[in-house]
Amino acid sequence: MTAKILVVDDEPLLEYVIQQKFRQKIRAKEFEFLFANNGKQALEKLAENPAIELVLTDINMPEMDGLTLLEKLAEGDRTLKAVVVSAYGDLSNIRTAMNRGAFDFLTKPIDFRDMEIIIQRTLDFVKRTREDLTKLQQTQTQLIQNEKMASIGQLIAGVAHEINNPVSFISGNLDHARNYFKDLLHIINLYQKHCQDNLQEIEAEIEALDLPFILEDLPQMLDSMTEGTDRIRHLSESLRTFSRADSSNRVSFNLHAGIDSTLIILRHRLKGNDNRPEIQVIREYGELPEVQCYPGPLNQVFMNIIANAIDALDESSLKKVKGEIENNLETHPNQITIKTAAIAETDTDRKMAAIRILDNGLGMTAEIQKQIFEHLFTTKPVGQGTGLGLSISRQIIIEKHEGNIKCISSPGEGTEFIIEIPL
Ligand SMILES: Nc1ncnc2c1ncn2[C@@H]1O[C@H](COP(=O)(O)OP(=O)(O)OP(=O)(O)O)[C@@H](O)[C@H]1O
Ligand SMILES: [Mg+2]
User: Least CB-packed of 12, 61, 185, 411 within 10 Å?
Assistant: First the structure.
């Protein structure tokens, strides 16, 4: 990685001298120098180039001097470091500069070997600080997410458990109700056969209540109640599969069950809405043995990626409805395809379970694709996306499972995520 260094000095010749003295490092792409004539220009350059790691600044300059610049720098990115260049023996300015957060100082006339050493040392420091900061941010995200998932997991598992009890007494009683109904029917039939008194009155009542209809409808009603309770039971099972909170130990887990439970939880989002019909989910599952993994976090990855695919399809459908792109929803329905297979990893030959999740939504540009796994990167409006989904997924797959995750996408065509977990 080329280190970007901003040199701030009102001496026009300095740019030439620096390019000369450091030409090898510049050619080797180790250093890239940017130049500004005063503090004000320096701040503008910094705003344009957030990747600048080091500012080398003179003290006396027109418009904004070096000491004021240091003050402004302290308000911005704390990982950026400044080195001041001052006249030899100008101890009072050097002291002020150090008090304002300068990392080091150089004296004029500049000794370029000295300069190189100081540049290198400062860059190392900045690099380490930035790495530590990134790690810290990732740990923080992971902690927040773990905490959130653990409590959501517990909640879901609790609710699923609470649902199970009432559902099982409904479904248990439905069987009895069906039997009682049969018994009552039998008795009615017996009455009809043997009871000859007041026949007219009974027949009038049978007519009024439409007994044949009741006899036909009641069993159907009971069947649909059974179907309803079965569905609730299925849902609560999926909730429990999904929220398996065993994130501290690896356990044996059926990935297909994980994906299916995730799809059930996302069912309300897959259904049709004002802008589009229901999203078709195509499952092409291969033969996969159970995988030793952390089921809760892994389901979270499936959830993040499938939710992103639904977002992408929602967005493209909206554009189609608005007429911004060709509306081919009839001929090219929204689809999410999930394929699984056992494969051998390309360079190592490790046996892996590969899960590929494809959507035919808007896709993304190469520029966006480069950033999607970054912490807090999102293209979605505030309130809709936090930019955490994929950075967390990456951590879960790469760090927690020693697997791989990558993305292939082209604008207008769609997106594919490939996840590989060691078997
Ligand atoms: N299937 C996809 N199709 C198109 N763009 C995608 C797809 N998946 C991810 N992206 C892009 O990657 C970005 C980052 O995704 P990520 O899941 O990390 O965050 P997010 O979805 O924006 O927010 P959230 O934290 O709620 O998940 C998205 O904002 C989007 O631009
Ligand atoms: Mg997301």
Answer: 12
Q: What band does 139 get if pLDDT is binned at 50, 70 and 90?
A: confident
pLDDT at residue number 387: 86
Q: What would the 3-class secondary structure string for the chain be?
A: CCEEEEEECCCHHHHHHHHHHCHHHHHCCCEEEEEECCHHHHHHHHHHCCCCCEEEEECCCCCCCHHHHHHHHHHCCCCCEEEEEEECCCHHHHHHHHHCCCCEEEEECCCHHHHHHHHHHHHHHHHHHHHHHHHHHHHHHHHHHHHHHHHHHHHHHHHHHHHHHHHHHHHHHHHHHHHHHHHHHHHHHHHHHHCCCCHHHHHHHHHHHCHHHHHHHHHHHHHHHHHHHHHHHHHHHHHHHHCCCCCCCCEEECHHHHHHHHHHHCHHHHCCECCECCCEEEEECCCCCCEEECHHHHHHHHHHHHHHHHHHHHHHHHHHHHCCCCCCCCCCCCEEEEEEEEEECCCCCCEEEEEEEEECCCCCCHHHHCCCCCCCCCCCCCCCCCCCHHHHHHHHHHHHCCCEEEEEEECCCEEEEEEEEEC
Confidence check: pLDDT of 142 > 80: no
| Per-residue model confidence as pLDDT tens digits over 370-399 | 999 988 899 998 878 888 889 889 989 998
Q: Is 145 in the pocket of ligand 1 (CB under 6 A)?
A: no
- The reply to whether ligand 1 has any atom less than 6 angstroms from the CB of 369 is no
387 lines ligand 1 (CB under 6 A): yes
Average pLDDT, the chain: 90
Range from 60-74, 173-187, 190-204, 259-273 carrying the lowest mean pLDDT: 190-204
Query: How many whole angstroms from 101 Cα to the centroid of ligand 2?
Result: 39
Tell me the best of 378, 384, 395 to mutate to test the pocket of ligand 1, counting ligand atoms within 8 Å of each CB and taking the most. 378
